[in-house]
Each structure stands twice: as C-alpha cells, then as structure tokens.
Amino acid sequence: MLTAFLLSGLLIGCTKKTAPELEIEEESVIAEEENIQEVKEDSDTKSWKNTSTPEGFSNYGIEPTLNAWIAFHSEDISKTTDTNDYYLKSERIIKEHEKYFRIEGEDLQKDFDNLRMLKLAISHFNNVISVQEKDGTDTEDSYNQLNKSFKYFSELLHDINIVINYNGDGETYGVTHQLDGDKVEELESFLY
C-alpha cells in the first residue's frame, strides 16, 4: 500500500508542469499556428501560368496560343447540338490540351482534370448508347446522361475561357474551382 502511494506521488510529480513551462508551450503552439497560416498564404491555389508548347499546332486558322485556342473551342462547343459530335469534339479538345496547351496551377488544373473526366463520361455514355441501340433497349436515360455530361463540358470550357481570356471577369456558369464556382460540388458529384 505504501509502495502504491509513493508510486502515485512520483507519477504526479513527473507530470506536473510549472506555470512558466506552460507559457512556453502555449507560445510554441501559437507560433506553429502562425507558420501554418503563412504557408497557406504563400501557396496560392489561384495563381497559374501558361506552360503551353504550341509548336506544330496549326488547326482552325487561329493563332497557336492558349488564349486563341480556348476562345475558339469555347465558342465552337456552344454551337454543337448533334449528339454524334459530342465525343469527337471533346476528345479533340482534350488531346490538343495534353499535347499543346498546358497550364500549371492548382485550382485551374482541377478544372482541366474535371474537363478530362467529363470527356470520359461522354465517351462512356456514347458507348452505352451504341450497345443499347444494337440490343434494341431503351436509350432515353443514357441520352439524358450524355446530354448532361456535354452540357457540363461546354459550361466548364466556357468558364475556363473566362479565366484565361478575361481574368475571371464575366458571366460564368459557376463550375470552376479557379473562380470558386457555386456549382463545382454539383458537377463533381455528377462525375464522382
């Protein structure tokens, strides 16, 4: 019993801290929080830069620049109404982006990643419709999903054009991370 009493006294003594030690610890925690805040401010997710290498690009009769390319496709895609063109146009845009027109920047890269995922969704629904038509089954739901995928693709391309060519000033659909769009979550819940 005496041993237990002495042992508990020793343990209490070992864990007891004095007021100055607590003060130092609190200052250390505050300093760590300030450093975390500074790191967050330094790693701006909105900054981006054009890392395009358009040598060899000569399509559509436009200048081989990121600005001209994104503006052309934003306008062209908005005029597309034939579901047979959805896959081909989205595929061409993604291939050209990967080969010639690239950017670096956390949020804008997320937007291009979502554009790529929408192209995959378009491809998927295009294939599903093809199989359903061969089997003679109902394609209405698949066409609805294909149209929804292409609508998001067009809207996202439009909003990316607003970012690149108008510094984010202009009317948008609210589907970009770069512009803190209010429909990003809706778009990503559709995709993922």
Number of domains: 2
Radius of gyration: 27 Å
Beta fraction = under 5%
**End-to-end separation:** 63 Å
Question: Can you summarize the main beta sheet?
Answer: 2 strands, antiparallel
What is the element string, with H for helices and E for strands? Answer: HHEHHEHHH
Bin the helical content. 55-70%
- Helix segment count? 7
Average pLDDT level: 85
User: What class would the helix/strand composition place it in?
Assistant: mainly alpha
Quick one: how many beta strands? 2
Dominant shape: globular
> Uncertain spans, ≥5 residues at pLDDT below 50?
1-22, 35-42
Strand order in the largest sheet:
1-2
Can you offer a commentary on this structure?
This protein is mostly helical and 192 residues long. It has two domains: 41 residues; 143 residues, no CATH class. The chain is built from seven helices and two strands. The chain has a two-stranded antiparallel sheet with strand order 1-2. The longest helix has 30 residues. The chain starts with a helix and ends with a helix. The relative contact order is 0.11.
Write the layout of secondary structure elements.
Layout: H1 2-15, H2 19-42, E1 49-50, H3 66-78, H4 83-99, E2 103-104, H5 106-135, H6 140-166, H7 184-191
Antiparallel strand pairs: 1-2
Helix pairs in contact: 3-6, 4-5, 5-6
